[in-house]
Predict the 3D structure of the following.
Amino acid sequence: EVQLVESGGGLVQAGGSLRLSCVASGFTFDDYAIAWFRQAPGKEREGISCIYNSDGTTYYEDSVKGRFTISSDIAKRTVYLQMNSVKPEDTAVYYCFSPTWRAWGRGTQVTVSS
């Protein structure tokens, strides 16, 4: 069974940092991509970053480019999202997603106070 489990969310002040983790199981981790999505209250879920574990290629949506960094530890089967210079508009539930297996984690709440 493919499973994704997020952690690391919490309350942070604007300008601060937070690191989210996504631990994957049930598939060959280093062959596939993992993406981070987020959903703010009253808004649609949006993709913000993705990493292709096969070659390390990364993608960032414009609103997080230069502030967030996605990385992967193959041995730990974990994808990280380092969030720096956070803003109140980054407040959302953050989910990791496997495009290949169409599997979602349950999400982790990030709240940025102004």
